[in-house]
Amino acid sequence: MALASGMRLSARALLRPWSPLRGKALGCTEPAAGGGNGARLFGSQRVLVEPDPAAGVAVMKFKNPPVNSLSLELLTEFVISLEKLENDKTFRGVILSSDCPGVFSAGLDLTEMCGRNPAHYAEYWKAVQELWLRLYLSNLVLIAAISGACPAGGCLISLTCDYRVLADNPKCLIGLNETLLGIIAPFWFRDTLVNTIGHRAAERALQLGLLFPPAEALQVGMVDQVVPEDQVQSTALSVMAQWMAIPGEEHREGQQLWVLVGEQSPLPPQPDAPGETRKF
Amino acid sequence: MALASGMRLSARALLRPWSPLRGKALGCTEPAAGGGNGARLFGSQRVLVEPDPAAGVAVMKFKNPPVNSLSLELLTEFVISLEKLENDKTFRGVILSSDCPGVFSAGLDLTEMCGRNPAHYAEYWKAVQELWLRLYLSNLVLIAAISGACPAGGCLISLTCDYRVLADNPKCLIGLNETLLGIIAPFWFRDTLVNTIGHRAAERALQLGLLFPPAEALQVGMVDQVVPEDQVQSTALSVMAQWMAIPGEEHREGQQLWVLVGEQSPLPPQPDAPGETRKF
Amino acid sequence: MALASGMRLSARALLRPWSPLRGKALGCTEPAAGGGNGARLFGSQRVLVEPDPAAGVAVMKFKNPPVNSLSLELLTEFVISLEKLENDKTFRGVILSSDCPGVFSAGLDLTEMCGRNPAHYAEYWKAVQELWLRLYLSNLVLIAAISGACPAGGCLISLTCDYRVLADNPKCLIGLNETLLGIIAPFWFRDTLVNTIGHRAAERALQLGLLFPPAEALQVGMVDQVVPEDQVQSTALSVMAQWMAIPGEEHREGQQLWVLVGEQSPLPPQPDAPGETRKF
């Protein structure tokens, strides 16, 4: 979730039918075994999901060793798991983290981007866009618990979240460093960064491919909090509790409604029947 | 007044004929008695206007006890009083403050927003939009002298001003806290906040409905200055004097002109005949 | 060069055929004498160009005593010199500075803007726009080495650069102070400033015509570094070396490509053949 309409380009303009990828299970997506009480671990090989239905919160952990490269399979499993959580009204918040020590995610999988055919490039890149769209437009509260390196696509994922907690470890560098790798960050990577740290800081960071150590990341606004490594998860949970205390649906869909009301209708919000009108 | 064209959505797109409200006197609007020399106090029951023609400055004080709720009557009287000042070339600046101790304004009047019929909602909400448009597009220099709590719609009013002075009192909380109340801030509340404190800070403040105490409000950029409570008014006046020293009309209408010139005409500004071309 | 697509208005919308000015040599433009090895000083009467082909960097110095007013001749010579450097693949970076002690540039030449005929105004103002477009959309890395006063148009030029180094001298004031002079800064001056220091700071700076001394300029983000006066040039060179270490063309044209790819084509970047697709 994010203040999406502040983006310079409409996220919705990017959304295209994605039937080839959406319809079938790529990789080895494995639905949760058992009962449907929501309390069992479900997910897939590459994305662990640890639900806490009582709190309304789930923790999703990337598990694609050694560095959580965003392979097509990981992206697919991630989007499916996220969609399940979105559809399950039990959950209002998700914490994103990593099951691989020392890294949050190394970003896009370069092996998906060269030596393949155009159809594969198209499929892969659509999956990257889909991930970003799902996260940035999510109704869930998203918090990134970052205990490892967080470059490029890993950083993008964290930027789509509502709050970022970073481990105070000099190895926990974060940034969109595509330029240094000879890769060009798409405009929506850039816009997401601009929304987070402002135009000028984003300009410099993108052009030089800067990776920020924790103190600098905090100062420039790339993350919201830096804590000792062993407190990243607990901090994320306690920040999430703060969000969960916000009443109703307002913190999720509030910003979108008034675009409609303001443009099309003179009607004010009707607090007594929020469920009907607040859907995006 | 504000750098209006930097807004993400055109304020003008919102401006609609507003004849039902504009034409008639709602509430008990009471024009200034007497002479027309501009020196007499005029205004209405709910908005006191204290003009200082020599300085070219007027002080407007909300007076709708106990908490300066923005009722339809207050909004109407406020807009009418502001229009009078706009039309009176004697005045170039207005200081907005409160006649009710402990509060600048508590914001929108919730009793106008539930238990009424759609026509009333439409009328009320148009009045809120009108207030915002009048303030944010005003040719007057506007300074908010805030000596009390300043939540929600009260905060919005202050954000439309050119400068905000806040009393250094822990009770003087300021912010768009609609989310906490189960109300959704319209997109133009959001955009006004984004323009003031930036995208990321606005995102977080809106989603959590944050109310900032003075020191934090200053740090995040929600206000421009925090001073002891008994110096709020005098500080506002001395800041206003700084603005009044700016020559001509430039500080008011300057930003708009070049939108026209740049897009439609190759002509440069003609400093020797500013009055003709600078009208918005 | 700058993150141009982040601008609120398309720079390209401003670009018009400019044949009357481009085709002929205004002023006394004097091409470099001699050999074509790129190592000789070339330029013109009003813009000195000191190339360092080995480093891929050239230094351009305004030389229009006493205050480097941006006369039509200076603008023309500057654009021509810049175009030469753009076309010469030897050069990837340019440092902008001044040959006149105590001033970077005093900005637009007021004598070009009054007492002339409309055709002259049009020609002059197009030249100003052309300069801004050339700089802000340049493929070259641009660094401003500012050892003197930098008001108005001088400030605009520095804002189009990728990095600004300012001398730590109280006389080195920098800002868009047009308002104080009774002149209105065009919207693209404003947008360039907003992109650099953010909306709220730009709003206040423009409305009051603020000129920032070095420490304040650094704090507000108007410049990136403040150094002792005798280290301005060397600092600019060492920052430039940092930029020159970025591989390939990514730091120049990277941002633009994905606008095309994302909107028109599902193809990902092809790192092994960047030259073909990365042209703007």
Short description:
Chains A, B, C: InterPro entries: ClpP/crotonase-like_dom_sf, Enoyl-CoA_hyd/isom_CS, Enoyl-CoA_hydra/iso. The structure is a homotrimer of 280-residue chains. With 280 residues, chain A is an alpha/beta fold.
Q: What is the approximate shape of chain A? A: globular
Lateral strand order in the biggest sheet of chain A: 1-2-3-5-7-9-11
Estimate what percentage of residues of chain A fall within beta strands. Answer: 15-25%
Query: Which oligomerization state do the chains in this entry correspond to?
Result: homotrimer
Structural class of the secondary structure composition of chain A? alpha/beta
Q: What's the tally of helices of chain A?
A: 10
Largest interface: A-B, 38 and 36 residues
Instruction: Tell me the radius of gyration of chain A.
Output: 18 Å
Overall mean pLDDT of chain A: 80
- N-to-C SSE series of chain A? HEEEEHEEHEEHEEHHHEHHH
**Percent helix range of chain A:** 25-40%
Cα distance, first to last residue of chain A? Answer: 12 Å
Q: How many strand segments of chain A?
A: 11
Biggest beta sheet attributes of chain A: 7 strands, mixed
What report would you give on this structure?
Three copies of one chain form a homotrimer. Chain A is globular, with a radius of gyration of 18 Å. In chain A, 51% of the residues are buried. Chain A is 39% helix and 15% strand. In chain A, the strands form three sheets. Chain A has a seven-stranded mixed β-sheet with strand order 1-2-3-5-7-9-11, sandwiched between helices. In chain A, strands 4-6 form a two-stranded parallel sheet. The longest helix of chain A is centred in the middle third of the chain and has 19 residues, at 118-136. In chain A, a hairpin with a 3-residue loop joins strand 1 (42-43) and strand 2 (47-52). The model of chain A is unreliable at 4-40 and 250-280 (pLDDT under 50). Chain A has 280 residues and is an alpha/beta fold. Chain A has helices at residues 19-23, 72-87, 118-136, 152-159, 187-197, 199-208, 214-220, 232-244, 250-264, 274-277, and strands spanning 42-43, 47-52, 57-62, 69-70, 93-98, 107-108, 141-146, 150-151, 163-167, 174-175, 225-227.
